[in-house]
Design goal:
- It contains 13 helices and ten strands.
- The chain has about 375 residues and is α/β, with parallel strands linked by helices.
- It has a single domain, classed as Alpha-Beta Barrel (TIM Barrel), CATH 3.20.20.
- Strands 3-4-5-6-7-8-9-10 form an eight-stranded parallel beta barrel, surrounded by five helices.
- It is globular.
- The structure holds flavin mononucleotide.
């Protein structure tokens, strides 16, 4: 049994401060991190998916970010049971999710997802649809956990995106964001991390272009900035936009988007200026420093460099010693909240993402608030809709 001490609720008290972002008011700083579940048959989230998100809202999570949701482009996502943010059936399914979360007092944003260079057409229902890659490449491969066969398929070069294809993809994001706003979502989260499409433009390993979409870090940020502007135009001023980014890629866990704070500033500033409200810096452990000479995490750097809200994530409520990457087995529950709160109180970040702890227990935040013991970690919960 972990954390049976009564003082837990007092220790986390600072994280229970409410926050207003544009027209969105959230009750506390705990955010459910986006997690792909592959449980939406035919790309339509069903009653079980709505109930899964509702349980997290009932468990007092301040803001839920959904699993990655395909934008309105046939090349957005590969595996069949990843949900879509287009089409009448999927939108009706999402409306039910939103309504249930709101009925339970929660707030929810969809994570708009386009896999870009990482989409594996062979495992998708649309195998004939060409990949969408800025420069037709998947980028330099380093430390990965991809099967050799999949990697071989992804390493086949394709045609770089044309200007009009890029413009069509931006429209696809805008259409899906408009759909989400129409349904009643509380904001829009963009998946700009981990080697997927927006990150393919940001990273010099996948963006070899010399036109307006490529070149120096500022030019590589042009596509994500255009996405943010297009989304802002269709959703209006009330809904916040969150942008997730990362150093690591599915192509290489050791890859780096930026080698220095200056480089990161050049990358993030145009995206911030385009209208992002929250930067979600994705990393494995919230307390791993990003650049030498400073303890700041990635969300902390984004906050410092852009003046926008910063969100961190990685290993909250989990024992880092027991695993190597984000979805392997062998994690263990662990109370590391003091270290998290200490950083929060220093102003490093404004929001904290909680991933696997919330898969393990929908009431993880509620338990922390009430000072109740956390459940032991059960890896089976990673693959079911508990
Ligand atoms: C099962 C699973 C699925 C995930 N799917 C996504 C995803 O769709 N989009 C995304 O940005 N991150 C995804 N992630 C990463 C999480 O959002 C989070 O950053 C990561 O799990 C680290 O947080 P944690 O240590 O609290 O779990 C996923 C993680 C897990 C465990």
């Amino acid at each position: 049994m972990l954390n049976s001490n009564k003082a837990l609720s007092q220790r986390i008290h600072p994280l229970l401060a409410p926050l207003a972002i544009r027209g969105l008011a959230i009750a506390n700083r705990f955010v459910m991190a986006p997690m792909t579940r592959e449980m939406s048959r035919g790309r339509v989230p069903g009653q079980d998916v709505a109930a899964y998100y509702r349980r997290r809202a009932e468990g007092q999570v301040g803001l839920i970010i959904t699993e990655g949701v395909g934008v309105d482009d046939p090349a957005a996502v590969d595996v069949p049971n990843v949900p879509a943010m287009y089409g009448a059936a999927a939108l009706a399914g999402w409306k039910q999710v939103v309504d249930e979360v709101h009925a339970a007092g929660g707030k929810i944003m969809p994570q708009l997802w386009h896999q870009g260079a990482m989409r594996d057409a062979a495992i998708s229902p649309e195998p004939h649809v060409a990949p969408r890659r800025p420069s037709g490449v998947i980028g330099p491969i380093g430390k990965v956990s991809l099967e050799a066969e999949k990697l071989a398929r992804l390493e086949i070069k394709s045609a770089p995106l044309t200007d009009s294809e890029i413009s069509d993809i931006i429209d696809a994001y805008a259409r899906s964001a408009a759909n989400a706003a129409q349904i009643g979502f509380d904001g829009i989260a963009i998946h700009g991390a981990h080697g997927y499409l927006p990150d393919n433009f940001l990273w010099s390993g996948t963006n070899l272009r010399t036109d307006r979409w490529g070149g120096d870090p500022k030019a590589r940020a042009e596509f994500p900035a255009e996405l943010v502007r297009a989304i802002r135009r269709v959703i209006g001023d009330e809904l916040p936009i969150l942008f997730r980014f990362s150093q690591f890629k599915m192509q290489d866990y050791n890859a780096r988007l930026a080698d220095t704070p200056q480089e990161l500033e050049q990358i993030l500033t145009p995206i911030a200026d385009a209208g992002v409200d929250i930067f979600d810096g994705s990393q494995r452990y919230f307390d791993t420093p990003i650049f030498e000479g400073s303890p700041l995490n990635l969300g902390g750097w984004a906050k410092k460099l852009t003046g926008k809200l910063g969100m961190c994530v990685g290993g909250v409520g989990l024992d880092r010693g027991k695993r190597d990457h984000h979805i392997d087995s062998g994690s263990a529950a662990s109370d590391n909240l003091d270290r998290l709160v200490a950083r929060f109180e220093q102003g490093e970040f404004d929001l904290v993402g909680v991933g696997r702890s919330l898969l393990n227990d929908p009431d993880w935040v509620g338990k922390a608030i009430r000072g109740e013991p956390f459940l032991p970690f059960d890896n089976n919960n990673l693959s079911r809709l508990t």
